[in-house]
């Protein structure tokens, strides 16, 4: 599992908790993956939409500009489960090596 897949897993995980807007996700992820460019995170978010794992909508705001929110789709939940299985297998294998 590469860094890109781990970030995808994290994005999908965040969206299983609740719908989020792009900058909110960027802030959370950039705090953990500080060496990843913001544009790469946004590109992954757009990719998840193209693949139908997420969908976007314009949310209500109070006084500010409209925000684009993202929510996970049913196929996104399946992808999340698939990536979690890969992650758990990788983690288990590394633990067997003492890492």
UniProtKB/TrEMBL annotation:
Q: Which SUPFAM superfamilies would you find in this protein's record? A: Winged helix' DNA-binding domain (SSF46785)
Q: Name one Pfam family in it.
A: PadR
What species was this sequence derived from?
Acutalibacter muris
Which classification does the entry list for the species? Bacteria, Bacillati, Bacillota, Clostridia, Eubacteriales
Q: What is this protein called?
A: PadR family transcriptional regulator
Gene3D superfamilies referenced in this protein's UniProt entry, alphabetically: Winged helix-like DNA-binding domain superfamily/Winged helix DNA-binding domain
Q: Where is the Transcription regulator PadR N-terminal domain?
A: 11-81
Q: PANTHER family given for it?
A: PADR-FAMILY TRANSCRIPTIONAL REGULATOR, TRANSCRIPTIONAL REGULATOR RV3488
